[in-house]
Amino acid sequence: MATQELISSSEFDAHSKQINSLCFGRSEILASASRDKTIKVWQFTQGRLTNTIVFESEYANSVAFSQNEKILVSGEKNSTIKL
Prior knowledge:
Elements: E1 19-24, E2 29-34, E3 38-43, E4 48-54, E5 60-65, E6 72-76, E7 81-82
Antiparallel strand pairs: 1-2, 2-3, 3-4, 5-6, 6-7
């Protein structure tokens, strides 16, 4: 069994309000959903923000990647699901 190297501790300062959900993808990506009405997508091993999705009316409570990481889904405060 191969030994995997642990990633050193990092801190990303990008949301202005509470973070509700985090989701790791297989290809070193991370999505974070916040009460600041944004979802941010990171290339976490480099600490680089790659995308910001802004919601106009509600914030996301949860976020997840599809198995192939081509779709990002969120569950919002107003009980809707967005792809």
